[in-house]
Amino acid sequence: MSGLSRKFALAAAAHVLALAWVPEVLASSAEITADQAGHFVTTAEIDHTAITVLVDTGASLVALSYEDAERAGLAPRTLTYDVPILTANGGIHAAKVLLNRVEIGNVLVRDVEGVVLPKGAFDGTLLGMSFLNKLSRFKVEDGKLFLQE
Questions:
Q1: Pairing of strands 49-55, 83-87
Q2: Fewest CB atoms less than 10 Å from the CB: which of 23, 81, 110, 119?
Q3: Confidence label for 83 from pLDDT (cuts 50, 70 and 90)
Q4: Residue pair 92/85 in contact by the 8 Å Cβ criterion
């Protein structure tokens, strides 16, 4: 092998080795610090609308308040509220929705199952497992929630 061919082969091998690390380096991630009560509250872009959310691993789905759903353009008054939901305050019926995109920082998840709660049922939005399970991983450590796309 000539000197030039050997240099080219070594450079190509180094390039391939470097590419093996690219996905880990480019992985989209976000970090949320717990508030004083230990809750993970942040702003999520839900269908291009900034909404304050409480990340809740105890919630099966993303659960939007009627008001937040209205702000996100989900037209809650036109939805069918026929999904039984058990909350800490008892049973209610919610409307099933599919959120096109949910984004926190640079972590973007598409096609997230959710529900819209009836008007007055809950003040706020819960970001539940239907979002978290679409991530490659998430973990809580030292008062921080780490999300990785």
A1: unpaired
A2: 23
A3: very high
A4: yes
